[in-house]
Design brief:
Helices cover about 70% and strands about 0% of the residues. By secondary structure, it is mainly α. Helix 2 packs antiparallel against helix 13, helix 6 packs antiparallel against helix 7 and helix 7 packs across helix 8.
Length: about 280
């Protein structure tokens, strides 16, 4: 089974061996690593339902099945193809049903309607479901104490999700989505424009820099929490924070004026994270 998991991840994720997620998970002891791969595979599959296109009603029906399968796994222990690999991690690490359901609910938000300039409170809910819920599952596997683990999930999840939003605005726009909050757009006089007009407007830079400052604060709080936690329990989240904060700083240095050069992680950044946070 262990070799099968490694093969699964390598096949499912493009260039998985060089990805920041894969690198962060490789530093974990094998039982934790395998549990994380199974949780990640589930979250990835649910995310693909939201992003792979097709009729909305069919994708919503698919998410309903994921939700029902999770409910049944917790209620009766019955495993389906969607949940069979989660039973072990749930039993071993006490993973909560509500967090799996929250991940599904987050992807549902992308299907019911394409998010376009949501209010901050809606965007924050989306970040909680799409990212912080995954964090709450993860910190139990990492072995963090419950209070600091929930606090870290709240802050680092939002930091990572906001970084993704700021990085992927053009990619999201191609799918008819704009995750930049309505209030920030209104403040800069962009609230009534189309997505294409917003992305071409020089004032977009001001909008994104304001969001980037929020993300920076979330990273700062996350780093303070991890500094107070046992080093062993925060190796992986610290690596993720290192890599994604590096992406955020690159985005800030680049700015958001059109045309925008793509900013992704570099292998050097991932290597630095591994050396700094993954080796004792």
């Amino acid at each position: 089974m262990s070799a099968e998991i490694d093969t699964l991840v390598a096949e499912e994720t493009p260039a998985a061996a060089s990805s920041s997620f894969y690198a962060a998970m490789r530093v974990l002891p094998r039982p934790q690593r395998e549990a994380m791969y199974h949780v990640y595979a589930f979250c990835r599959a649910v995310d693909d339902v939201a992003d792979n296109g097709g009729a909305r009603e069919l994708r919503l029906a698919d998410l309903v099945q994921y939700r029902e399968d999770i409910e049944e796994l917790y209620a009766t222990g019955r495993r389906t193809q969607r949940t069979r690999d989660l039973a072990g991690p749930i039993a071993q690490y006490g993973l909560l049903k509500d967090d799996f359901i929250a991940v599904i609910d987050g992807m549902e938000m992308d299907i019911v309607r394409d998010l376009r300039a949501p209010e901050w409170k809606v965007l924050d809910l989306y970040c909680d479901r799409a990212a912080s819920a995954v964090g709450r599952l993860s910190v139990r596997i990492f072995g963090m104490e419950e209070g600091p683990g929930i606090e870290l999930s709240h802050n680092l999840g939002r930091a990572l999700q906001l970084t993704n939003i700021l990085r992927d605005i053009d990619e999201d726009a191609a799918m008819g989505r704009l995750y930049l909050p309505k209030e920030a757009l209104r403040e800069c006089g962009l609230a009534d424009l189309s997505i294409a007009e917003i992305l071409a407007d020089p004032r977009l830079d001001r909008v994104c820099r304001g969001i980037a400052e929020k993300a920076r604060k979330y990273y700062d709080v996350s780093e303070a929490i991890m500094a107070r936690s046992s080093r062993r329990s925060v190796r992986s989240p610290r690596m993720m924070a290192t890599v994604y904060r590096g992406i955020l700083e690159k985005l800030i240095a680049r700015g958001w004026q059109a045309p925008r050069v793509d900013v992704r992680r570099s292998k050097r950044t991932v290597l630095w994270a591994v050396l700094r946070d993954g080796i004792f």
